[in-house]
Specification:
By secondary structure, this protein is α+β, with helices and mostly antiparallel strands. The protein has 24 helices and eleven strands.
Length: 592
């Protein structure tokens, strides 16, 4: 007898049976954990057992995160991306989950080279030896969606492009089907969540899934990545600080991407930088400034600038170097911060599959936020968040303002080296308090804003690795001052526009008041309070269900206590409580 089909990880094209098994496995995992969460977080508090839910919450969240980690590594595909995505949702998920998943990486083995060869030849329409003079069968990098191999162009292509060494990126065979199955399962889970008040009161789950789907589909479209790299190069055309690999369009398709090999010194490779005569402390402020330009000026930024995606490329004549290729987007010049007589180098970015865009209105809000942060202004930071639309204007922000003021007073202006000297317990206590305040507020960070946070977080980490004494505030403050000067240039036009709007309002006001008085005199002006009516009806239904709840309370308590230890008996008791539970939930609704 044959073995049962194992959910596919993208090593081959999955058939319909394997796809269904994968789909069902994802839904089973999500369904069970949603049921457990519903039981503990919604039902137990409703019958007065809030303490039971609170006592087991941390353990349950950690158990969920560990099980999801196992599921993601086993299935591969988008599940690893989901884990990475969840680890950044600090506004939605508790720290027990985000902490457990923050280290989730593409823990998948490489695809056999023969499968990669077959897919590349089918995409390019020719044998691999005809397309390239050489392809290294050992991948330089392997991920859940694809992998990369070093290669060399044929003499003819090398003459046409001016390139020789390239990197060949090839998608994992069958990844399109895997992504389609995963997104179908995630969309169904999103619909489930849209009916859970605990979730829909804080986040639009279906919209969140669609945001993730868009990012994922763009990431597996290599032509989209190639277009991103071209746009990024255009944004920094003529900037001697930045380099971008050239795309070999004749050897690129939606599933195969050929790029100039710009492998140089990894940005955090202190030994390699020293061998090239480059001071890491001089690289940090340049890297920070380049990222600030992307976020606050260009509005198009690299959302995944981790050390593996950024090289320091010594330019010709700059001394020893380890570069095997040359970036093409900028003319040779000394990088700012390197000193007048120092070594010439530039920052070379690769992997443009995950990019973010900042619309003009969002960019304006981000500028206000940056200025407020540089000024240590807690209230200004909250107002900027409201302008961005991530925090409702009706939210009670007093606690958040207090927490931000405390944050600036204690840690504002500190460099990474100084922060390392702070007692970790102080960080932990403040983090718990601040996280509780943030999660209690009615807001949701848009996808692009999350990408901004990711980019800034990675930027801070890279700068810290380059220079332990690096102070991000010292880079933020002059940039904020420049933004303030730019904003002042728009004051006159803003004042004039506001004056015209006020004049138009004053012109219309007498007519509106006259119409309002007329309606009052005619008796056609009515005032209702639907909110009060809904509250009365809700109170009646709640009292009715509370009486019915006593009938299944014993089963509920027993199931909660036993289930906290993951016992089989607890599960049985939970299932047995379904009938009286339905009566509790729906028995009193007829009167409403």
């Amino acid at each position: 007898m044959g073995a049962a089909p194992r959910p596919d990880r993208g090593d081959s094209v999955p058939d319909a049976r394997v796809s269904r098994a994968r789909y069902r496995r994802i839904l089973r995992f999500a369904g069970w954990n949603l049921a457990v969460t519903w039981f503990f977080e919604l039902l137990l508090p409703r019958v007065g057992l809030t303490r039971v839910a609170e006592r087991t919450r941390a353990k349950r969240m950690q158990r969920f995160a560990r099980r999801f980690h196992v599921l993601a590594v086993d299935l591969g595909g988008l599940m690893i991306k989901v884990g990475q995505f969840m680890s950044s949702r600090l506004d939605v998920l508790p720290p027990e989950i985000t902490k457990e998943l923050e280290g989730l990486q593409d823990e998948v083995p490489p695809v056999p080279f023969e499968a990669i060869r077959a897919l590349a030849e089918a995409e390019l329409g020719m044998p691999l030896p005809a397309a390239f003079a050489y392809v290294d069968p050992v991948p330089v990098a392997a991920a859940s969606l694809g992998q990369a191999h070093r290669a060399r162009l044929t003499p003819r292509d090398a003459a046409d492009t001016g390139l020789d060494a390239v990197v060949l990126k090839v998608q994992r065979p069958g990844i399109d089907t895997i992504v389609e199955v995963d997104l179908a399962a995630l969309r169904r889970v999103g619909r489930w969540l849209s009916h859970v008040r605990l979730v829909y009161s804080r986040v639009d789950a279906p919209a969140l899934v669609e945001e993730f789907a868009q990012t994922s589909l763009e990431e597996i479209d290599y032509l989209h990545e190639a277009a991103n790299s071209v746009r990024f190069a255009e944004e920094f055309a003529g900037d001697p600080r930045v380099g971008v690999p050239e795309v070999v369009w004749e050897r690129s398709t939606r599933k195969v991407l050929t790029l100039e090999d710009v492998t140089a010194i990894k940005i955090t490779d202190a030994a390699g930088l020293a061998a090239a005569g480059i001071d890491p402390a001089e690289v940090a402020p340049v890297f920070a400034a380049v990222m600030f330009d992307q976020l606050f000026t260009n509005g198009f930024f690299h959302a995944d600038p981790h050390p593996g995606n950024v090289f320091v490329t010594p330019l010709p004549g700059a001394g020893p170097a380890t570069s095997t290729g040359t970036a093409t987007s900028a003319a040779p010049a000394a990088a700012p911060g390197a000193g007048e007589t120092g070594p010439a180098w530039r920052l070379t970015f690769i992997d443009f599959g995950m990019m973010g865009t900042v619309p003009p209105n969002t960019r304006s809000g981000l500028r206000k936020m940056l200025i407020a942060a540089a000024s240590r202004d807690g209230r200004g930071l909250v107002e900027a968040a409201q302008d961005l639309g991530v925090l409702l204007a009706t939210a009670d922000t007093r606690e958040l303002e207090r927490a931000l003021t405390q944050l600036f007073a204690r840690f504002g202006g500190m460099g990474f080296a100084e922060l390392r000297e702070v007692d970790p317990r102080e960080f932990r206590e403040f983090g718990l308090e601040f996280g509780h305040v943030v999660r209690s507020l009615p807001f949701q960070l848009p996808e692009n804003f999350l990408l901004i946070i990711r980019a800034m977080s990675l930027t801070s980490g890279v700068c810290s690795a380059l220079d332990p004494m690096f102070n991000l505030w010292e880079s933020v403050e002059p940039y904020a001052q420049r933004l303030i000067r730019e904003e002042r240039g728009n004051v006159a036009s803003d004042v004039g526009r506001q004056a015209l709007e006020n004049l138009a309002l004053a012109w219309r006001l007498p007519g509106r008041l006259d119409a309002l008085v007329t309606r009052a005199e005619e008796g056609s002006l009515s005032v209702t309070n639907p909110a009060l009516e809904r509250r009365v009806a809700r109170l009646e239904r709640t009292m009715s269900r509370a009486i019915s709840a006593l009938l299944f309370g014993a089963l509920l308590v027993a199931g909660a206590v036993v289930r906290a230890d993951d016992g089989v008996v607890g599960t049985v008791l939970m299932i047995a409580s379904v009938l009286p539970l339905l009566h509790t939930l729906f028995g009193g609704r007829r009167s409403g």
